[in-house]
Each structure stands twice: as C-alpha cells, then as structure tokens.
Amino acid sequence: MLQTIANLWRLKHLRKRILFTLFVIAVYRIGTYIQVPGLNVSLLNNQQDNQLFNLLNMFSGGAFYRFSIFAMSVTPYITASIIVQLLQSGVIPRFEEWQKEGESGRQKLTQVTRYLTVAFGIFQAAGITYTFHKGGLLYSDDWWSYIVMVIALTAGDTLLMWFGEMITEKGIGNGISIIIFVSIISRFGQFATEVYQNWFYGHPDQVFLSALKVVLLLAGVVAIFALIVFVQQAERRIPVQYAKRVVGRTVYSGQQTHIPLKVNAAGVIPVIFAVSLLILPYTVASYFPTTHWGRFILAYLYPNSTAYIVAEVLLIILFTFFYTHVQINPHMLAEQLQKHAGYIPGVRPGWDTEQYIIRVVNRITVFGSLFLGFISVLPFLLLSGINLNQVYFGGTSLLIIVGVSLQTLQQLEGQLLQRHYRGFIR
C-alpha cells in the first residue's frame, strides 16, 4: 500500500490532480463556516428534531445548522440533473438529439443543467428564507434581508456546482459525488459524540456493556461495507466470439472475449437521486403547512417515516433500472458487435443479440436495485433499535461513502496501470 501511494506521487499530472482536489475540498470546508447574515443561528439549532433539517444538514456537511453560504449543498444541482436526464428519454426530442451528438451535445445539456440549477437554487433559497421567516428565526423582516439571503444561498449553490465541475475536469473522481462524500464524512465526529453521550456519559457502571456495543456497531459497519464492496465489484460476463476477418492486407484471427456487465452498473447515483427527489415534496409542503396536501405530506412523508422509507426504496429501484439503461445501451452494444464481426455464442447477431443483452441486464439489475434498497434502510432499522437513528449515518450515507471511494480508487487504478504500476485493487 505504501509503495502504491509512493507511485501516485511519482506521476506529476496525477499528483497535481490530487492536490487540486484536496485544495477545492479545503475551500469548500472553509466555506461551510461562512454564515449568511440575517438569521438567529442559536434558534435554528434548537430545531434539530426537524427531520428535513437533519437531512439537509447531512448533505451540507453541517453547513445548514450553521446557515453558511453552502447550506443548500448540491441538492438543486442534483434535482436539475435528474430532470435533464429524464427529458433526454424522448420527452424533448432536441435533448435526445444533443445526447447523440457527442461532446458538443453534452456541453449543451450541461449548460441547460446549469441554468436549471440556478433556477432551483433561487426557488429553494426563497423557500428556506420563507420557512425561517414563518418560524421567527430572522433578525429582521424587511425585504432587503430576504433578498440578501436568497442571493447568498443561490451564489453558494452555484459556487458548489462550479467546484464539482472543476474537480471532475482537473481533479480526481466525480466532483459532485466527492463533495457529498466529504459532507457525510465530516458528520462522523457528531455521530461519535452521540454514541459517547448515549452509551458512556452518565453511565459509569455500564462501561463494559457500552464498549461491547461499540465493538458490535463497528463490526456491523465493517460487515455492511464488505457486503457493499462485494456487490459493487460483482459483474456478469457475457462471452463474445469474434470471427476471422480481413481489413485491407491485415488478417485478424478470431478471438474470444467477454462483455463485463456490473450487477450494480448505476453505482450510487440512484440513491442520491431518490433522496434528493424525496426532499422536494416535503420542502414544498413546509412552505404551505396549512393546506390539506401540505399537512398530509408533513404528517406522513417526513424523513425516516415508514412511508418515506417505502418511497425511497421504490424510487431507488426505479432509478436503478432507468440509470442502468442509460449507462448500458443494448441496441448500441448489439450494433457494435455486428459491425466488428462479433457474436454471442448461441445467439443470432442483430435484434436477437439486443434482446438477449436486455434480458441479462434486467435480471442482474433486479438484484442490484433490491440490494441498494435493502442497504439504504438496513442501518437505519438497526440504529433505531439502539437509539442512534440519525439520518446522517443511514444506509444512504454508507452507500455513498463506499460507492464514491470505489469510483475514485478505480480512476486512480487506471492511471497507475497505464504506467505499469501496481494499483490499489488486487
């Protein structure tokens, strides 16, 4: 491991990418302590029983209860990304055309996502300001204070979007995922404090029992981590045979290979999408608490309620299927195989190959989606039994931590293997 880390620093461009990523993360963490003026933070911290606030605080790395410029985190960007990706599926033909245009089309879709992010940021910032106004948390009720708060929150959200894009372009890993990863990791100190206060503080006669609980808790977390890694790395290999062919004067002999299809090809994206989408109706309902539908959502669809957990699992399954078929295009795979004189043994080229790939992808995605849904609620069910049911340390957090870590390690692995160095993954 030490030799692998040393190899990372030998590569100049990789060293620059790592340092740039760490620099952006440091700037982001400093920004979580820059407060937006106009709010009584002490009164806000008295409302830590609000499940929505806890969820927003988890995604913002504690910035929400400090009411910093990054209090909204990247939730408007994620919501905008979900909508743009859904609109690419034949809803808006222009978006579908851009998707097929390659790099130029992706740039246009990215620009649309940016504009939507700013629009959702303004909407969410205005809603948060209105909620705090109704709760009596503001120092001043004049319009100028409202405008300053909305502009500051929207600017912070836009800056985070830019940070994520810069990390993706000049750093290591997916920038938005890295920001969410850092936010969740930063909350582990508060989780450890809660463990100490609940199990050790004021219970000197139960030190041994509390220590045993901590050991069992750590063992459970390690076991869940190992299970997530095992499933995330699992893949279904479809055998492919290439016929002998002649290109110009070069003769290519037939060879046998395979198409690796991951059991969970969507990664942690469905989890992030599902949680971000579920925040939306509860947030909107909090703006209209006196309406019938507002009271219904606030009463039954609050975070960690039974209805919320069921909806989260269903959305994770739905988004897993959707995003898997976005990542793996069976029609394109079948065309590429036929174009290069490849075929799956026992399956006719063309339409039959496409249908075969669709069946395989659907079968493995059923298991992958159910696994994501199961893991997303398992830690919450276990922790609620021992009075540690905080949302910032649920299954969603574990999935994001492992998924982002694996994604980043695989990118570093690819860079090392290109230079004939041994990587992290054995």
Word description of this protein:
The strands form two sheets. Strands 4-1-5 form a three-stranded antiparallel β-sheet. It has a two-stranded antiparallel ribbon with strand order 2-3. The protein has 18 helices and five strands. 69% of the residues lie in helices and 6% in strands. It has helices at residues 2-10, 12-31, 41-45, 51-59, 63-66, 75-87, 93-100, 103-134, 143-170, 175-185, 188-199, 207-233, 269-287, 292-300, 306-327, 330-339, 351-384, 395-418; strands at residues 235-242, 245-247, 250-252, 255-262, 342-343. The chain folds into two domains: 1-186, Orthogonal Bundle (Preprotein translocase SecY subunit); 234-393, Preprotein translocase SecY subunit. Helix 6 (75-87) packs across helix 8 (103-134). The mean pLDDT is 80. By secondary structure, the chain is mainly α.
Shape call: globular
**Main β sheet profile:** 3 strands, antiparallel
Q: Label the structural class.
A: mainly alpha
> What's the CATH topology name of the largest domain?
Preprotein translocase SecY subunit
* CATH class value of the largest domain: Mainly Alpha
Fraction of residues in H or I helices = 55-70%
CATH architecture label of the largest domain:
Orthogonal Bundle
Q: TL;DR?
A:
The protein is 69% helix and 6% strand.
Show the helix and strand layout.
Blueprint: H1 2-10, H2 12-31, H3 41-45, H4 51-59, H5 63-66, H6 75-87, H7 93-100, H8 103-134, H9 143-170, H10 175-185, H11 188-199, H12 207-233, E1 235-242, E2 245-247, E3 250-252, E4 255-262, H13 269-287, H14 292-300, H15 306-327, H16 330-339, E5 342-343, H17 351-384, H18 395-418
Antiparallel strand pairs: 1-4, 1-5, 2-3
Helix pairs in contact: 2-9, 6-8, 6-13, 7-8, 8-9, 8-13, 9-10, 10-18, 12-17, 12-18, 13-14, 13-15, 15-17, 16-17, 17-18
